[in-house]
Amino acid sequence: VNNAYDYTLMIGIQVLNTTAKETPADLLDVPFDDPRMIGAFEALFDQLLPALTENVRYLSIGNEVDVYLTAHPEEWDAYKTFFDATAAYVREWAPWIEVGVTVTFDGMQTEADKVVRLTETADVAIVTYYPFKAGLQVKEPSAALIDFPQIVALADGRPVILQEVGYPSAEILGSSEAMQAEFVRYA
C-alpha cells in the first residue's frame, strides 16, 4: 500500500481478553506454555506478516491479561513463557515492531510483582486506564495527574502506550458529564 500519510499503528492479538481466553476452540484447554499454543501463535503471525508494513510499530499480545490471570493464578507462569516465546518470534521476523502485553492500571498496582515479571521482556508498557476506586466509583477528575506519573514509573524506563483511557459520566458511578469533561482537561 502506498499512502501519502505517515501513521503509526498498534495491533493486538487478544489470546487473553480481560476475563476470557479467546483462542480457537481446539486450544481452549491447551496451556499457554504448551508448544502447540506457541506454534499456533507463530502460524497466525506468519499469516499476518505480509500485511504488517513498517507503519505497524506496536503489537500487544493479550488485552488486560492481569484480570484473567488474577482469576486463574496458576496460569501466570505459563502465560509468561508464552509471551516471552511469541514476543521473541515477532522480533525475529518483524524487528521494527515493539512488543508488549496490555495490562490494567489497577493490575499494575495490585499485581505489581506478577506484572513486572510478566512484562520484563516487553519492549513497551501498554496500559488501559479507567480511574476507579472501591465500589466502581470514579476517582476525582484530577486523578490522572497522580496516576499517569505512576504509570510511567511502573513502566521502568520503557515507552508507555495508553491503549484506552476513559472516565464514565454515569451518576450511579459517582460521576457526571461535567466531571468527565474536567477529567479530559487533566488527561
* Percentage of residues in helical conformation: 25-40%
Count of helical stretches: 7
Order of strands across the main sheet: 2-1-3-4
Largest sheet: 4 strands, mixed
Secondary structure tally: strands: 9
Write the element-wise H/E pattern from the N-terminal end onward.
EEHEHHEEHHEEEHEH
Task: Give a written overview of the molecule.
The chain has 187 residues and is an alpha/beta fold. It is built from seven helices and nine strands. The strands form three sheets. A four-stranded mixed beta sheet has the order 2-1-3-4, with helices on one face. Strands 5-6-9 form a three-stranded parallel beta sheet. A two-stranded antiparallel sheet has the order 7-8. It is globular and about 50 Å long. The mean pLDDT is 95.
What is the gist of this entry?
By secondary structure, the protein is an alpha/beta fold.
Write the layout of secondary structure elements.
Blueprint: E1 9-17, E2 20-21, H1 35-48, E3 56-63, H2 65-71, H3 76-93, E4 98-100, E5 102-104, H4 105-110, H5 112-118, E6 125-129, E7 132-133, E8 137-138, H6 143-154, E9 160-165, H7 177-186
Parallel strand pairs: 1-3, 3-4, 5-6, 6-9
Antiparallel strand pairs: 1-2, 7-8
Helix pairs in contact: 1-3
